[in-house]
Design a protein that fits this description.
The complex is a heterodimer of chains A (115) and B (109).
Chain A: E1 5-7, E2 10-13, E3 19-24, E4 31-38, E5 42-50, E6 53-57, E7 64-68, E8 74-78, E9 87-94, E10 105-106, E11 110-114
Parallel strand pairs in A: 2-11
Antiparallel strand pairs in A: 1-3, 3-8, 4-5, 4-9, 5-6, 7-8, 9-10, 9-11
Chain B: E1 5-7, E2 10-14, E3 19-24, E4 31-37, E5 43-50, E6 55-58, E7 61-66, E8 71-76, E9 85-93, E10 96-99, E11 103-108
The chains are: A mainly beta (115), B mainly beta (109).
Chain lengths: 115, 109
């Protein structure tokens, strides 16, 4: 099975712009979650989707949004970019073994740099 | 806020030695997972231990969980250069997992 893929891998944007990141989960996985990783804050949970519904959301401003499509692919959007949004954005997917089970499988991440 | 806190933050050992890192957490959990991250890349799942389990093995990895102390440890035996990475514990509760800040492990030749 192919792993989790994320596009693009690298991105440079200017303050004030918006950006959309894409994630394709492992085939058959219906849960997708997103994380922001920075040296200072570590891995911060953004949100989780299951069957097109957002199930959990982290403590991020409304500029961060996401969605999941019927094929389980997911996108996250950041509007009005700030310098502090520079980070590695990681997507992960999980199978449907029940909410108490299962590891998350991570993609390689999208490195976003805001200048 | 972070749920898990790894200790130590950084660890350097000689190749062949054992490496132990610890994780403490604050609230009740369904499971605890350990992940590895090589520099700037995605995380790789290593092992999951459920709240009703006390110890689990996978190859050179041994994980223990003490729910009364809200702590877990990851032991890597006979370390290799390829084990150089950051290791994160992640506590799972109600479909959410929350990561600690990780332990940076460096294996010296």
């Amino acid at each position: 099975k192919a792993g989790v893929t994320q596009t693009p891998r690298y991105l440079i944007k200017t303050r004030g712009q918006q950006v959309t990141l894409s994630c394709s989960p492992i085939s058959g996985h219906r849960s997708v979650s997103w994380y922001q990783q920075t040296p200072g804050q570590g891995l911060q949970f953004l949100f989780e989707y299951f069957s097109e519904t957002q199930r959990n959301k982290g403590n991020f401003p409304g500029r961060f949004s996401g969605r999941q499509f019927s094929n389980s692919r997911s996108e996250m959007n950041v509007s009005t970019l700030e310098l502090g949004d520079s980070a590695l954005y990681l997507c992960a997917s999980r199978g449907t073994g029940g909410h108490l089970s299962g590891a998350w499988y991570f993609g390689p991440g999208t490195r976003l740099t805001v200048t | 806020s972070q749920q898990g806190e790894e200790d130590p933050q950084a660890l350097s050992i000689q190749e062949g030695e054992n490496a132990t890192m610890n994780c403490s957490y604050k609230t009740s959990i369904n499971n605890l997972q350990w992940y590895r991250q090589n520099s700037g890349r995605g995380l790789v799942h290593l092992i999951l231990i459920r709240s009703n389990e006390r110890e689990k093995h996978s190859g050179r990895l041994r994980v223990t969980l003490d729910t009364s102390k809200k702590s877990s440890s990851l032991l890597i035996t006979a370390s290799r250069a390829a084990d150089t990475a950051s290791y994160f514990c992640a506590t799972g509760r109600d479909d959410k997992i929350i990561f600690g800040k990780g332990t940076r492990l460096h294996i010296l030749p």
